[in-house]
Design goal:
single chain; 84 residues; 60% helix; elongated
Length: 84
């Protein structure tokens, strides 16, 4: 597994946790433990995202205001080698 793939898996898991906790907080807005947990995960996500974007480019098209076409330089799904 490449460094890019490892970082993407971590980012995806953090995004999932943040989204899941946000959904929970929609119905439990006063749950302080969950708010703290979500803030902790968000603080882990931010520097990892910044590091990923520094090494591999924007994560989404909205992330790069200076050059909105830079995301297209990344390999397309069919250009990645499959490991079996």
């Amino acid at each position: 597994m490449t460094e890019r793939e490892i970082m993407m898996k971590k980012l995806s898991s953090y995004q999932f946790m943040i989204h899941d906790l946000q959904l929970y907080l929609d119905t439990h807005p006063n749950d302080e433990k969950t708010i703290i947990k979500m803030n902790e995960i968000s603080e882990k996500y931010k520097p990892l995202k910044a590091e990923f974007e520094k090494k591999f480019g924007s994560l989404t098209t909205n992330d790069n205001a200076k050059n909105r076409w830079s995301w297209i330089k990344a390999p397309w799904p069919w250009e990645n080698e499959e490991v079996e």
